[in-house]
Amino acid sequence: MKIPILIINMKVYPEVLGRRALELAKVTEAVSRELGMSIAVAPPTTELRLVAENVEIPVYAQGADPVEPGGARTGGHVPLEFIKETGASGVILNHSENRLLLNDLGWLVNRAKNLGLETLVCAPDPYTSAAAAALEPTAVAVEPPELIGTGKAVSREKPDVIVKTVELVKRVNPSIPVITGAGIESYEDVKRAVELGTQGVLVASAIVKARDWRQKIMELAKALH
Q1: Three-state SS at 90
Q2: What residues contact 162, with CB distance under 8 A and at least 6 apart?
Q3: What stretch of H or E contains 163?
Q4: pTM for this structure?
Q5: Which residues are catalytic?
Q6: C-alpha to C-alpha distance for 154 and 184, rounded to whole angstroms
Q7: Mind listing the pLDDT tens digit for each residue in 27-85?
Q8: In what order do the strands lie in the sheet with 90-93?
Q9: Do 74 and 81 meet the contact criterion of CB atoms below 8 Å apart?
Q10: Contact 29/38 with Cβ under 8 angstroms?
């Protein structure tokens, strides 16, 4: 993972249904090249291979299940091996909308590492972020769940969360970067997050639902540049 980084989580918004996910990824790739900075996308699982095979920027899965391929009772689950095979470079784990048990999270981080997949582990608060850092993922993303999708940026509403998270994660493992998410929508939101110590931002609706994808990606990315 190249730092600083902007990560766009497309979730499953209707704006990225089908090939629209690739269209957003292509726009993202163009901005990444123009600015010469790291921007990653996390498309819906159904479009993961399509996106990974057609862009050169990092592509992450939105989640994975703690199961081995071919195991009993694994129907409907997504093993890490299947994510790796699509060409994706990493996976987002423990998002507040798809939380995992601690032992499952640890198992996934370790297995992903063995497969050569990057891991971005989400956490709702500073202390959980520190616990996540102890698992040695590629990066930790702190996202207070009550602010996700509200337009109320954590960098404005709860700056202490970012400061405390950076402090605690550094104590556990200073090599793990802290990413910030939840409610981030503007250049000012991102700039403030950087000033508070974050090394990247995780954004969803602010970009996916924007009328002009390129303009919004450019706005947020420049604040990290």
Answers
A1: strand
A2: 142, 154, 155, 178, 180, 193, 196, 197, 198
A3: helix 159-172
A4: 0.94
A5: 95, 143
A6: 7
A7: 999 999 999 999 999 999 999 999 999 999 999 999 999 998 887 777 888 999 999 99
A8: 38-42, 5-9, 200-203, 178-181, 139-142, 118-123, 90-93, 60-61
A9: no
A10: no
